[in-house]
Please model this.
Amino acid sequence: MYFKNKNITIYYEKYGNSNKSILILPGWGNTRSTFNYIIEFLKNNYTIYIFDYPGFGKSKVPKSSLTIYNYAEIIKNFINKQKIKNPIIIAHSFGGRISTLLTTYYKVNIDKMILIDIAGIKPKKTIKQKIKEKIYKLLIKIVNKLKNKDLYRQKLINIFGSKDYQTLPIEMQQTFKNIVNEDLTNYFSQIKSECLILWGNLDSSTPITDAYKINNLIKNSELIVFSNANHFPYLQYPYLTNKIIYEFIKD
Model:
Protein backbone atom coordinates (compact mmCIF):
# COMPACT_ATOMS: atom_id res chain seq x y z
CA MET A 1 0.00 0.00 0.00
CA TYR A 2 1.06 3.59 -0.54
CA PHE A 3 0.68 6.82 1.37
CA LYS A 4 1.13 10.20 -0.32
CA ASN A 5 2.43 13.12 1.71
CA LYS A 6 2.60 16.33 -0.35
CA ASN A 7 4.95 15.41 -3.25
CA ILE A 8 6.36 12.26 -1.63
CA THR A 9 4.79 8.79 -1.76
CA ILE A 10 5.95 6.03 0.57
CA TYR A 11 5.20 2.33 0.62
CA TYR A 12 3.92 0.66 3.78
CA GLU A 13 2.53 -2.69 4.86
CA LYS A 14 -0.23 -3.40 7.34
CA TYR A 15 -0.69 -6.58 9.37
CA GLY A 16 -3.40 -7.57 11.84
CA ASN A 17 -6.65 -5.88 12.74
CA SER A 18 -6.58 -4.94 16.41
CA ASN A 19 -7.64 -1.78 18.22
CA LYS A 20 -4.06 -1.32 19.43
CA SER A 21 -1.49 -0.25 16.82
CA ILE A 22 2.25 -0.72 16.54
CA LEU A 23 4.40 1.35 14.19
CA ILE A 24 7.72 -0.23 13.25
CA LEU A 25 10.30 2.32 12.15
CA PRO A 26 13.24 0.45 10.55
CA GLY A 27 16.80 1.63 10.22
CA TRP A 28 18.40 3.43 7.29
CA GLY A 29 18.22 1.62 3.96
CA ASN A 30 16.05 -1.23 2.79
CA THR A 31 15.72 -3.06 6.13
CA ARG A 32 11.94 -3.53 6.38
CA SER A 33 12.20 -7.29 5.83
CA THR A 34 14.43 -7.73 8.90
CA PHE A 35 11.33 -7.31 11.08
CA ASN A 36 9.34 -10.22 9.64
CA TYR A 37 9.88 -12.37 12.73
CA ILE A 38 8.67 -9.63 15.09
CA ILE A 39 5.65 -8.98 12.87
CA GLU A 40 4.66 -12.64 12.76
CA PHE A 41 4.91 -12.83 16.55
CA LEU A 42 2.76 -9.75 17.26
CA LYS A 43 0.28 -9.43 14.38
CA ASN A 44 -2.45 -11.57 16.01
CA ASN A 45 -2.72 -9.15 18.93
CA TYR A 46 -1.90 -5.82 17.30
CA THR A 47 -2.33 -3.88 14.09
CA ILE A 48 1.17 -3.35 12.74
CA TYR A 49 2.39 -0.77 10.24
CA ILE A 50 5.89 -0.82 8.75
CA PHE A 51 7.41 1.50 6.16
CA ASP A 52 9.86 1.93 3.31
CA TYR A 53 11.31 5.40 3.71
CA PRO A 54 11.67 7.71 0.70
CA GLY A 55 14.47 6.40 -1.49
CA PHE A 56 14.40 2.82 -0.22
CA GLY A 57 12.53 -0.40 -0.95
CA LYS A 58 9.34 0.30 -2.88
CA SER A 59 9.36 4.04 -2.12
CA LYS A 60 10.72 6.30 -4.85
CA VAL A 61 13.75 8.51 -4.46
CA PRO A 62 12.60 12.04 -3.50
CA LYS A 63 13.23 14.81 -6.04
CA SER A 64 14.82 17.08 -3.43
CA SER A 65 16.90 16.50 -0.31
CA LEU A 66 15.17 15.84 3.01
CA THR A 67 15.94 16.42 6.67
CA ILE A 68 15.13 14.15 9.60
CA TYR A 69 12.27 16.54 10.39
CA ASN A 70 10.78 15.82 6.95
CA TYR A 71 10.90 12.06 7.62
CA ALA A 72 9.25 12.50 11.02
CA GLU A 73 6.58 14.77 9.55
CA ILE A 74 5.66 12.14 6.96
CA ILE A 75 5.09 9.54 9.69
CA LYS A 76 3.19 12.08 11.80
CA ASN A 77 0.85 12.82 8.88
CA PHE A 78 0.42 9.09 8.28
CA ILE A 79 -0.66 8.61 11.91
CA ASN A 80 -3.16 11.45 11.59
CA LYS A 81 -4.49 10.21 8.24
CA GLN A 82 -5.00 6.67 9.56
CA LYS A 83 -6.51 8.06 12.79
CA ILE A 84 -4.10 6.02 14.90
CA LYS A 85 -4.31 6.90 18.57
CA ASN A 86 -1.50 6.36 21.09
CA PRO A 87 0.49 3.86 19.03
CA ILE A 88 3.36 1.76 20.30
CA ILE A 89 6.63 2.45 18.48
CA ILE A 90 9.32 -0.11 17.72
CA ALA A 91 12.30 1.78 16.31
CA HIS A 92 15.70 0.60 15.16
CA SER A 93 18.76 2.76 14.42
CA PHE A 94 17.63 5.57 12.05
CA GLY A 95 14.03 4.90 13.09
CA GLY A 96 14.99 6.11 16.55
CA ARG A 97 15.63 9.57 15.14
CA ILE A 98 12.12 9.65 13.72
CA SER A 99 10.44 8.34 16.87
CA THR A 100 12.32 10.85 19.02
CA LEU A 101 11.09 13.80 16.96
CA LEU A 102 7.57 12.37 16.70
CA THR A 103 7.04 12.42 20.44
CA THR A 104 8.98 15.61 21.23
CA TYR A 105 9.15 18.06 18.32
CA TYR A 106 5.81 17.05 16.77
CA LYS A 107 4.09 16.23 20.09
CA VAL A 108 2.53 12.97 18.85
CA ASN A 109 1.06 10.94 21.71
CA ILE A 110 3.02 7.68 21.91
CA ASP A 111 1.98 4.96 24.36
CA LYS A 112 5.27 3.05 24.69
CA MET A 113 8.53 2.99 22.77
CA ILE A 114 10.97 0.16 22.13
CA LEU A 115 14.25 1.70 21.00
CA ILE A 116 16.74 -0.74 19.47
CA ASP A 117 20.32 0.49 18.93
CA ILE A 118 18.93 3.85 17.89
CA ALA A 119 20.81 6.74 16.29
CA GLY A 120 20.55 10.38 17.25
CA ILE A 121 23.70 11.19 19.20
CA LYS A 122 26.30 12.79 16.95
CA PRO A 123 29.71 11.27 17.72
CA LYS A 124 32.68 13.53 18.38
CA LYS A 125 35.14 13.47 15.50
CA THR A 126 38.60 12.11 16.12
CA ILE A 127 41.67 14.05 15.01
CA LYS A 128 42.08 11.57 12.16
CA GLN A 129 38.50 12.15 11.01
CA LYS A 130 38.92 15.93 11.15
CA ILE A 131 42.08 15.77 9.02
CA LYS A 132 40.37 13.43 6.56
CA GLU A 133 37.43 15.82 6.26
CA LYS A 134 39.69 18.81 5.56
CA ILE A 135 41.55 16.89 2.85
CA TYR A 136 38.24 15.86 1.25
CA LYS A 137 36.90 19.45 1.22
CA LEU A 138 40.14 20.71 -0.32
CA LEU A 139 40.09 18.05 -3.05
CA ILE A 140 36.40 18.69 -3.80
CA LYS A 141 37.18 22.35 -4.48
CA ILE A 142 39.84 21.29 -6.97
CA VAL A 143 37.65 18.63 -8.59
CA ASN A 144 34.75 21.07 -9.08
CA LYS A 145 36.95 23.08 -11.44
CA LEU A 146 37.67 20.10 -13.68
CA LYS A 147 35.76 19.13 -16.83
CA ASN A 148 35.05 15.57 -15.68
CA LYS A 149 34.16 16.67 -12.16
CA ASP A 150 31.39 14.07 -11.71
CA LEU A 151 33.79 11.23 -12.43
CA TYR A 152 36.45 12.49 -10.01
CA ARG A 153 33.84 13.42 -7.43
CA GLN A 154 32.64 9.80 -7.36
CA LYS A 155 36.22 8.61 -6.95
CA LEU A 156 36.62 10.86 -3.92
CA ILE A 157 33.39 9.53 -2.46
CA ASN A 158 34.68 5.97 -2.91
CA ILE A 159 37.83 6.91 -1.00
CA PHE A 160 36.48 9.18 1.72
CA GLY A 161 32.77 8.35 2.03
CA SER A 162 31.20 5.87 4.44
CA LYS A 163 29.74 2.63 3.10
CA ASP A 164 26.18 3.95 3.57
CA TYR A 165 27.06 7.13 1.68
CA GLN A 166 28.81 5.30 -1.16
CA THR A 167 25.82 3.10 -1.97
CA LEU A 168 23.35 5.98 -2.18
CA PRO A 169 22.11 7.52 -5.44
CA ILE A 170 23.31 11.09 -5.94
CA GLU A 171 19.83 12.43 -5.12
CA MET A 172 20.03 10.92 -1.61
CA GLN A 173 23.54 11.99 -0.65
CA GLN A 174 22.62 15.44 0.65
CA THR A 175 19.75 13.88 2.60
CA PHE A 176 22.24 11.53 4.26
CA LYS A 177 24.45 14.49 5.21
CA ASN A 178 21.49 16.38 6.63
CA ILE A 179 20.55 13.44 8.83
CA VAL A 180 23.92 12.38 10.22
CA ASN A 181 24.82 15.99 11.04
CA GLU A 182 21.66 16.45 13.16
CA ASP A 183 22.30 15.87 16.87
CA LEU A 184 19.11 14.97 18.77
CA THR A 185 20.70 14.67 22.22
CA ASN A 186 18.66 17.52 23.66
CA TYR A 187 15.40 15.86 22.61
CA PHE A 188 15.91 12.62 24.55
CA SER A 189 15.30 14.29 27.91
CA GLN A 190 11.95 15.56 26.58
CA ILE A 191 10.57 12.07 25.91
CA LYS A 192 7.72 11.32 28.30
CA SER A 193 6.63 7.90 27.01
CA GLU A 194 7.67 4.74 28.82
CA CYS A 195 10.70 3.43 26.94
CA LEU A 196 12.47 0.10 26.71
CA ILE A 197 15.98 0.39 25.27
CA LEU A 198 17.53 -2.73 23.70
CA TRP A 199 21.18 -2.68 22.64
CA GLY A 200 23.97 -4.92 21.40
CA ASN A 201 27.12 -4.48 23.46
CA LEU A 202 29.34 -4.98 20.38
CA ASP A 203 27.52 -2.43 18.22
CA SER A 204 30.05 -0.50 16.12
CA SER A 205 27.47 1.71 14.36
CA THR A 206 25.82 3.15 17.47
CA PRO A 207 28.17 2.36 20.36
CA ILE A 208 27.00 1.03 23.72
CA THR A 209 28.01 4.35 25.31
CA ASP A 210 25.08 5.91 23.42
CA ALA A 211 22.74 3.40 25.09
CA TYR A 212 23.81 4.43 28.60
CA LYS A 213 23.59 8.11 27.72
CA ILE A 214 20.10 7.80 26.23
CA ASN A 215 18.97 5.69 29.18
CA ASN A 216 20.11 8.44 31.55
CA LEU A 217 18.43 11.17 29.51
CA ILE A 218 15.02 9.46 29.18
CA LYS A 219 13.53 9.52 32.66
CA ASN A 220 11.02 6.70 32.22
CA SER A 221 13.29 4.17 30.53
CA GLU A 222 14.95 0.81 31.13
CA LEU A 223 17.98 -0.59 29.32
CA ILE A 224 18.61 -4.22 28.38
CA VAL A 225 22.02 -5.03 26.88
CA PHE A 226 22.48 -8.13 24.71
CA SER A 227 25.89 -9.74 25.14
CA ASN A 228 27.94 -10.60 22.03
CA ALA A 229 25.41 -8.75 19.87
CA ASN A 230 25.98 -6.17 17.14
CA HIS A 231 23.74 -3.47 15.61
CA PHE A 232 20.95 -6.00 15.01
CA PRO A 233 20.35 -7.80 18.33
CA TYR A 234 16.75 -8.56 17.34
CA LEU A 235 18.10 -10.76 14.53
CA GLN A 236 20.70 -12.47 16.71
CA TYR A 237 18.28 -13.07 19.59
CA PRO A 238 14.89 -13.22 17.82
CA TYR A 239 12.92 -15.31 20.32
CA LEU A 240 14.26 -13.47 23.36
CA THR A 241 13.63 -10.09 21.73
CA ASN A 242 10.03 -10.99 20.93
CA LYS A 243 9.35 -12.19 24.48
CA ILE A 244 10.88 -9.04 25.98
CA ILE A 245 8.89 -6.76 23.68
CA TYR A 246 5.64 -8.62 24.32
CA GLU A 247 6.04 -8.49 28.10
CA PHE A 248 6.76 -4.78 27.89
CA ILE A 249 3.82 -3.77 25.69
CA LYS A 250 1.05 -6.08 26.89
CA ASP A 251 -1.68 -4.46 28.99
